[in-house]
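[Automated response] Your request has been received and processed.

Submitted sequence:
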Amino acid sequence: MHFIDVIDYIGTFAFAISGIRLAAAKRFDWFGAYVVGLVTAIGGGTMRDLLLGITPFWMLQPSYLIVTGVALLFVILFRKHVVHMDNTIFIFDAVGLSLFVVVGIERSLDAGFPFWVAILMGMITGSIGSVTRDILINELPLIFRKDIYALACVFGGFVFLLCHKLGMDKVFTEVATAVAVVLLRIVAVKFHISVPVMKVEDDDEKEKEK
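Generated structure:
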């Protein structure tokens, strides 16, 4: 097993937990929570593979379904700690996001696509699963809010590109990329850094009246 495969499985586990945790907060049953966790874990990679014209990764081996099952069991066994911790979803989501960015970039480069496509595929791999998750649980997708989310994926892509251009070791490049994504997410949340919200004239006038 290659290091990128390890990253892929860890990312799958982390993203699955983030989806299952949110489903539990919405009082889904076990099967519903599993479905949400699975979609969260494989949604981005599925979209990536379809765009790249290759067979979706999870259709080639059942391990991703098994990893999601392990994530469900983890949440069931430790639900008192996982479900009621406010920062749980952020931690697992940030880890899953960062690792899937790396996987998306690597898979795209392996398929022979240029770096600009790989960066976009890294963003899609990292963010589309969470979009689908939020839609399933009837929440406004995180990527469409003010949070630095998809942009964190793009930032990680440029870190990967920089390390590659500098001739850094492959494992170092992958770790540096993942760390960069997580750090940007943490800094953005901690210091309330966000993308400006689109406003119409009526909103601006209401703010002036206040």
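Summary generated for your ticket: The radius of gyration is 18 Å. The longest helix spans residues 3-25.
If you did not submit this request, please reply to this message.
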